[in-house]
Specification:
Elements: E1 9-10, E2 14-17, H1 24-32, H2 49-62, E3 69-75, E4 81-89, E5 108-114, H3 123-137, H4 154-160
Antiparallel strand pairs: 1-2, 2-3, 3-4, 4-5
Helix pairs in contact: 1-2
Length: 174
């Protein structure tokens, strides 16, 4: 697969774009500070917009890497940043075998977060489809997934965007 990195993607309602430190306040207010949204993410809810700015600064450093895929999900009509979506390699997943037992391609996982006020409107399904098409056109099969399958809409969202879920929960439940 020839990687192209985080390229701007557009759907009917959304703009998927690179994030910058200038997005810190909106990201913090709309989802990064919400423990319910960040519940199954690899990072905890942020306590300040400065913490969000630090994360965005790190992400910005990686945008030059053609294998780095991290988008902000923005409503095209309002310009409001509603969430994030990322794709990352999942080398431990087997996607297929050739006759001589060589693995064919690599699997990718999707991670995402969406502010609660935008849940149940199809936004993340739309974003997942756009990101999935980018990878599929590059020849990379999708494994899909979210750290945990407990969210009620997870199965439907994955099915609609042609992702295959695999159960996994990295963070212990208290």
């Amino acid at each position: 697969m020839k990687h192209c990195g985080t390229q701007e993607l557009e759907t009917g309602r959304l703009l998927l774009r690179r994030l910058t430190v200038d997005d810190s306040e909106m990201m913090f207010n709309n989802w990064a500070s919400d423990p319910e949204v960040t519940r199954y993410l690899r990072w905890n809810a942020h306590r300040s917009w400065a913490e969000t700015a630090e994360m965005l600064n790190e992400w910005e450093k990686h945008y030059g890497d053609p294998t780095f895929y991290q988008w902000g999900v923005e409503n095209k009509r309002s310009g409001v940043l509603m969430g994030t979506i990322s794709l990352f390699p999942a080398p431990e997943l087997k996607t297929g075998w050739h006759l001589n037992t060589e693995i064919l391609g690599s699997a990718w996982e999707a991670g995402y977060a969406l502010g609660r006020k935008w849940w149940n409107n199809g936004y993340m399904t739309e974003a997942l489809c756009a990101a999935g098409l980018l990878v599929q056109h590059g020849g990379c099969p999708l494994a899909g997934g979210h750290p945990c399958q407990r969210e009620c809409g997870q199965q439907r969202r994955a099915a609609k965007s042609r992702f295959r879920l695999r159960p996994r929960c990295d963070r212990p439940q208290i």
